[in-house]
C-alpha cells in the first residue's frame, strides 16, 4: 500500500468493531465464499490468528472480460513465515486477521510508504503469529495502468525497493535475528537492489542505476547473478 492507504488502513483498524479484519482496496474483489470460509476456520481452528489465502492478479478488457495474469495459490508459498514474506509475495489483502494481531503488533508503519504491509507481516512472522494457509483464492487484484506496485519501471515500485532496504537495515540490527534469517535478508537485499537497477535502466537513468549497483556489488559479489536471474 501507499503511505496514504496505510494511513487509511490504520484509521479503519481504529474504527472497526468486528473481530476479523481484511483489507479490501477500492478496485479489487473478494472471491465468493471468502468471509464464510474465514468464519469457519476461525471457529474450528483454535488459536488461528491469521488466514493466509491465495490471490489472483487480473486485468479487465474494454469488452468487460477478465484475463488472469498471475495466480498465487500454493499454501506453502502463502504461509506466514520469514522467507515467504521477504522473498515471496507479501499478499496482505488475501490474509484475514483477528483483531488481536493488531492489538499485539500495533499498526502499519508509515515510515515505509510502499512496504508497510511487508513490514507488518514480518513483525507477525517474527512474533510466530499462528496462521492457517489455504489454497483457496480469497482475493483478486485488479491490474490497470495506474497500478502503483505492479507496473515495471514506475517510481512507486522503486520506492518499494528502497523501503525494503530500510527494513532490512533495521532487521540486521536486531540481535535476535538468526543466521538463517540473515542469509535470507542478504538475498532479499540483492533482489531489492537488482530490481531497482532494472527500474532505472527501463527509465533510461543509467547513472542512477550505476549509483545503486556498484556500492552493493563491492559488498556482495552475488549481486550480478541475482540481476541476471531477475532480468530473465
Descriptive notes:
The protein has 232 residues and is of the alpha+beta class. The chain is 50% helix and 17% strand. The chain is built from ten helices and six strands. It has helices at 3-15, 34-44, 75-78, 82-87, 99-105, 116-126, 155-172, 179-202, 206-219, 223-231, and strands at residues 20-21, 29-30, 50-60, 66-72, 95-98, 131-143. Strands 1, 2, 3, 4, 5 and 6 form a six-stranded mixed sheet that branches. A hairpin with a 5-residue loop joins strand 3 (50-60) and strand 4. Helix 8 runs antiparallel to helix 9 and helix 8 (179-202) crosses helix 10. The radius of gyration is 18 Å and the shape is globular.
Salient structural properties:
232 residues, alpha+beta, 6-stranded mixed beta sheet, 6 strands, globular
Amino acid at each position: 500500500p501507499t503511505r496514504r492507504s496505510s494511513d487509511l488502513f490504520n484509521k479503519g483498524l481504529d474504527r472497526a468493531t468486528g473481530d476479523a479484519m481484511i483489507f479490501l482496496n477500492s478496485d479489487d474483489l473478494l472471491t465468493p465464499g471468502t468471509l464464510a470460509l474465514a468464519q469457519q476456520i476461525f471457529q474450528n481452528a483454535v488459536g488461528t490468528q491469521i488466514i493466509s489465502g491465495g490471490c489472483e492478479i487480473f486485468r479487465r478488457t474494454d469488452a468487460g472480460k477478465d484475463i488472469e495474469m498471475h495466480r498465487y495459490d500454493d499454501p506453502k508459498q502463502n504461509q506466514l513465515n520469514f522467507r515467504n514474506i521477504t522473498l515471496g509475495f507479501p499478499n496482505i489483502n488475501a490474509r484475514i486477521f483477528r483483531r488481536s494481531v493488531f492489538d499485539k503488533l500495533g499498526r502499519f508503519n508509515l515510515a515505509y510508504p510502499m512496504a508497510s504491509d511487508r513490514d507488518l507481516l514480518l513483525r507477525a512472522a517474527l512474533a510466530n503469529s499462528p496462521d492457517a494457509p489455504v489454497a483457496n483464492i480469497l482475493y483478486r487484484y485488479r491490474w490497470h495502468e495506474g497500478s502503483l506496485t505492479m507496473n515495471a519501471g514506475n517510481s512507486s515500485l522503486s520506492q518499494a525497493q528502497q523501503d525494503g532496504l530500510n527494513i532490512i537495515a533495521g532487521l540486521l540490527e536486531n540481535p535476535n535475528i538468526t543466521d538463517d534469517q540473515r542469509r535470507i535478508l542478504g538475498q532479499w537485499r540483492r533482489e531489492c537492489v537488482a530490481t531497482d537497477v532494472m527500474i532505472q535502466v527501463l527509465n533510461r537513468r543509467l547513472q542512477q542505476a550505476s549509483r545503486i549497483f556498484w556500492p552493493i556489488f563491492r559488498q556482495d559479489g552475488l549481486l550480478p547473478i541475482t540481476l541476471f536471474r531477475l532480468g530473465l
